[in-house]
Write a structure and sequence with these properties.
Elements lengths: L6 E14 L2 E14 L3 E5 L6 H7 L8 E12 L2 E4 L5 H7 L4 E4 L3 H4 L6 H11 L5 H14 L5 H4 L9 H13 L5 E5 L7 H18 L2 E6 L2 H7 L2 E6 L2 E7 H6 L4 H8 L48 E5 L2 E4 L6 H10 L1
Parallel strand pairs: 3-8, 3-9, 6-7, 7-8
Antiparallel strand pairs: 1-2, 1-4, 4-5, 9-10, 10-12, 11-12
The structure holds iron/sulfur cluster.
Length: about 350
């Protein structure tokens, strides 16, 4: 099991706000998450739940008006823990695109239309002093071959507009893999390609992960994709991680009411049902997030305490964590009610 491997990344008490004209959006609300070496961990949840912001905060890629307010992002480098939030921009640049790389959702905007694909792959290696231009060019061809691009010797000379969406995403994957990153963060990597290409890209990621042992953080709202590739899942809602468990537990024994709601929206081809059950209501406006548990206005099990206080995180079984008052002992709940 991946959870027996050592941690490679620890996110602690992370808060991110966006300072907009309409008000302060409290986007990330105290996220705690451990990532283990060699695993595929998936962050799932509805659009706007904080998956992308959390993943970008890892290397401080939060654009203005966003600001990381507090927390720690601990990355294990050569058996030492370094807090990425404390590094200066130069030190961080050596990690971003090298030890931690990203595959973004839209390959068209991730690639520069003015440069050939080969140049863009090779440049990542040269900038990080991993190779000179000659070596980097040869490795670019190898990477295109590994990502199953036909005739890679020719494709390195092509410009992004000459490639299909699926091909562009393979080039983006090649760029991300060029420095053999320890962690690959894939943010909705298959959203902008058609279904057959989606399956091919997922197979490709699975194969590369097996071959290189790269840790993958997959950001998606597609539970089918999660079932296909993830070892563990962290479910996010309105800026909080509400449940973490291995893939089997999430699908077979989900506990948090939001996780249950999310899975109830996924069609099961083996079950005949009249209609899917959507989660009532919508994601709250995070300028004015609901007090207590942020899910309480939509939760069928909400109690009084849920409206006032956030639940502590409870470990139900080894590696299965839930943030919900339903799983806190009655004694502890009463104690919290008294002190709250
Ligand atoms: Fe529902 Fe309360 Fe649990 Fe939140 S803490 S999910 S409102 S039961």
């Amino acid at each position: 099991m991946s959870t027996r491997n050592k941690e490679i990344l620890k996110i602690r008490n992370l808060y991110v706000n966006f300072y907009t004209y309409a008000g302060v959006v409290k986007a990330i609300n105290g996220v705690d998450l451990d990532v283990y070496e060699g695993e595929v961990i998936s962050l799932v949840g509805e659009t706007g739940c904080g998956k992308t912001v959390t993943s970008r905060a890892i290397t401080r890629l939060i654009p203005p008006p966003g600001r990381i307010e507090k927390g720690e992002i601990l990355f294990r480098k050569n058996s030492e823990w370094i807090d990425l939030l404390k590094l200066d921009e130069n030190e961080l640049r050596k990690i971003r695109g090298d030890e931690i790389a990203y595959i973004f959702q839209d390959p068209s905007s991730a690639l520069d239309p003015l440069y050939t694909t080969g140049y863009q792959i090779a440049e990542t290696m040269v900038v990080h002093d991993k190779a000179d231009w000659d070596e980097a060019w040869k490795k670019a061809i190898e990477l295109l071959r590994e990502t199953m691009i036909p005739a890679p010797e020719e494709r390195v000379k092509t410009y992004p507009h000459e490639l299909s969406g699926g091909m562009k995403q393979r080039v983006v994957i090649s760029i991300a893999l060029s420095n053999d990153p320890k962690i690959l963060i894939a943010d909705e990597p298959t959203t902008n390609v058609d279904v057959t290409i989606q399956a091919e890209l997922i197979d490709l990621l699975k194969e590369l992960q097996k071959k290189k042992g790269t840790t993958i953080m997959l950001i998606t709202h597609n539970m089918g994709l999660v079932a296909e590739i993830a070892d563990r899942v962290a479910v996010m809602y309105a800026g909080n991680v509400v449940e973490i468990a291995d893939i089997w537990t999430i699908f077979e024994e989900p506990l948090h009411p939001y996780t249950k709601g999310l899975l109830a929206c996924v069609p099961d081809p083996l079950k005949k049902i009249e209609r899917l059950e959507p989660i009532p209501g919508t994601i709250p406006n995070l300028i004015y997030p609901p007090p207590g548990c942020r899910f309480h206005p939509r939760c069928p099990k909400a109690m009084d305490i849920c409206k006032k206080q956030r639940s502590p995180r409870v470990e139900i079984a080894p590696g299965h964590f839930v943030e919900c008052w339903l799983f806190v002992s009655e004694e502890e709940r009463k104690e919290a009610e008294k002190s709250g």
